[in-house]
Design a protein that fits this description.
The complex is a heterodimer. Chain A is mainly alpha-helical. Chain A has helices at residues 3-32, 39-42, 62-85, 87-114. The chains are: A mainly alpha, B mainly alpha.
Amino acid sequence: MSTYEHGYLIVGCLMLVALVVASTPLLLAACLRPRKPSAIKQATYECGIESKGDSWIQFKAQYYLYALAFVIFDLETIFLIPCAVALNQVGFFAFLEMTVFVGVLLLGLVWEWSKGVLEWR
Amino acid sequence: MNLSDLLPLLRFLAPEILLSALALGALLGEAALSRLLGVEKRQNLLGWLALLGLGACLVILGDQAARGETLALGRGAFVASPFNALLKTAATLAVMASVTMGLRAPFVRHVGENYALVLFSLLGMFFLLSAESLLMIFVALELTSLPLYALAASQKGARRSIEGGLKYLLFGGLSAAFLLFGISYVYGMSGQGSLAGLRDWLVAQRTAGGPGFLFLTGVCLMIVGLGFKIAAAPFHLWAPDAYEGAPLPAAAILASASKLAGIVVAARLLLGAFLPVAGNVLGSPLSWHAGWSPAVAALAVASLTVGNLAALAQRNAKRFMAYSSVAHAGNVLVAFLALDASGRPAALAAPAIAYYAVIYALTNAGVFAAIHALAWGARGDDFADFRGAARRAPFPAFFLLIFLLSLAGVPPMAGFFGKLFLFMAALQADATHWGLAWLVAYALAMNVVALGYYLRFARVLWVEPAEDLRPISTPLELRVALVALALLVLGLGVFPSSCLAAFRTMGGVLLLRG
């Protein structure tokens, strides 16, 4: 076994130890504790307050659409800044590439706009 | 890189660029037309435009195949070759059949997005068929799969479409994780990203004590990911639900073009890059050698068993096709094992796999197109809905029979020669000792079962009485698609050896460049 694989062996041992340390108290508790279930004990724990209603509620998908659109343009800046800083070194070709990249994202924005994704309903 | 270096590249990348433009155009077309035209008009107009663009792609690909030039970019990140152009042509044809199916029957409200997803998925397959580096394979695989997940779930109103799509997504995500984890080990141990580099590294390791067990772990993890992609048992569980839930045009892509790309990339990885660690499964289990061969043999046997036996019990045409595709994954995996005792693959193996994958993609596209034509007048897609359909719509029923016979492997259909070459390759590998005879014998036995269930489906169509005798009309474009696919399936069957020879001279599946 090479030293490289040896490193993984240590990770494996650590995983095993973690598993044992985490599961032993739970198992011990499961064996030792008295079992007296009641309705209030079975209820979902919600910061000590009595839980109300179902957890299957509907919530607005609009948040996600906004978040997605935001992330795309957020990432765009991450790509744009290094390109802008190094523009003198990378030259005209990189500028062209960036233009294509921004153009594709712009098409996406046009599509989102026309599909009404940006309107809050 | 200068602009002047860019122009020759554009010629090789033209199909991919055209496809990207088409997909973006479909999105913009939807954006521009959604207020002006109704769903059906848009479906038709954008569909014809997509077909036109795909036709142009075919012309460019044909030109690439005819020119016979090869280009390898960035250590195998993108390889354009005549052989790859041919494979891309087959994938494009299958996708064109799928688009044709949807022309008159809008199955989603978001028409342009649907076409964009189809085209992006095809773009992913193009890159996948051209990729000879680990990272590019992964990225292309994701580009192929992500739109397919959405397509499988695209009938948002139908519960089973959502269910099938979700299952496909979850299984797909998990298998992508397996693949990526495997890639990380393989790359971590070898430091090689390109398939050619990996093979050379493995050959060098033979004298340096072998690649180590972590490398083999990585290879096995990658096999899990690939097994999912080609729906090999036991990684096939998503297939029946995804096929059943997906709208027929989307299911057609899942079963044809996506499978073709998966088989080719699996062959490139296993028979190309990882060939030196193949091991073998010749003769009795005691004489096997460790490597990926025993794992792939297990997948092959499991797929042949599960696919063929489960297909017998199906009542729904799409689920039936899903299990049939599992069985065919088993068939094609047999040829992956066509290695002799010293680990050299049979000369026939790679061309046979490519031939089979192409035939299979075209035939399956045909089956789904014909089922689509028959389902026009039916309530659903259970076998019971197709009873006596041949009397109601003899035209598509006749072509469905041709495609089913090709899948069953009845001569003179191309499917027969596909299977013949696969099994011949397996037997040739270790011809003096009959090393793979056990596997081939099992595959043949299972293909006899397959003949039974394909003919049972044909019986439902042709023999059983129809309850409803109103004729089903088949739109002209669907008729053209059926005839074209049938001609291809018959044509490739009439000239099997010349096709195989063409594949061979084009360098086989495993053309690897540094």
